[in-house]
Amino acid sequence: MKMPSMKPTLTLCIAGLLLAPLTGLHAAEAPKPGAKPNIVLLLADDLGYGELGCYGGKVATPHLDRLAQEGQRWTQFYANSCVCSPTRAALLTGRYPQRAGVNTALVQPIQDNEGLAPEEWTLAEALREAGYRTGLIGKWHLGSSAERHPLRQGFDEFTGCLSGMIDHTSHADKMGETDWWQGEERLMEPGYVTHLIERHAVDFIDRQKEQPFFLYLAFTTPHSPYTAPGARPVWKLGVGNGGDNAKEPDALEGRAALVRAMDDAVGKVMDAVSRKGVGKETLVIFLSDNGAPGRYKNNPVFIGDTGGLRGQKFDLYEGGIRVPAIFHWPGRIAPCVVADPAITMDIMPTLLKLAGSAVMPPRAFDGVDLFPALMQGQRLPQRDLFWSFKKLCAIRAGDAKLVRTDALGKNPEAKPKTELFDLSKDRAESLDLSAGSTAQVEDFARRLDRWQKDVESGPKTEGKRALTK
Question: What is the pTM for the complete model shown?
Answer without folding.
Answer: 0.91
